[in-house]
Amino acid sequence: MEIVIGIVAGILTSISMVPQLIKVIKEKDVENISPMMITILLVGVSMWVVYGVILKEWPIILSNAFSVLVNATLLIFYFFFRKRT
């Protein structure tokens, strides 16, 4: 049962930023995005991947690797779409 809970929790937390990424891609507007928050989150989920590798726990590795991908993409789009002054 704990494996199922871990997998569901991993899926939910991993997909939590997908709606934000879709919105940024559609609207090309990143004015209300905090690059510092995304960077901190990116470091945190990257550390979860390392932790998962150490424990050899695939649910931790896969869910957080997906989060790394989504958040890194969001950060890239932030710098791509931001208004330069």
From TrEMBL:
UniProt keyword Transmembrane helix, yes or no: yes
TM spans (from-to): 6-25, 37-54, 60-81
InterPro entries, sorted: SemiSWEET, SWEET_rpt
Single GO cellular component term: membrane
Keyword Transmembrane: yes
UniProt keyword terms in alphabetical order: Membrane, Transmembrane, Transmembrane helix
GO terms of molecular function: sugar transmembrane transporter activity
Domain of life: Bacteria
Name of the protein: MtN3 and saliva related transmembrane protein
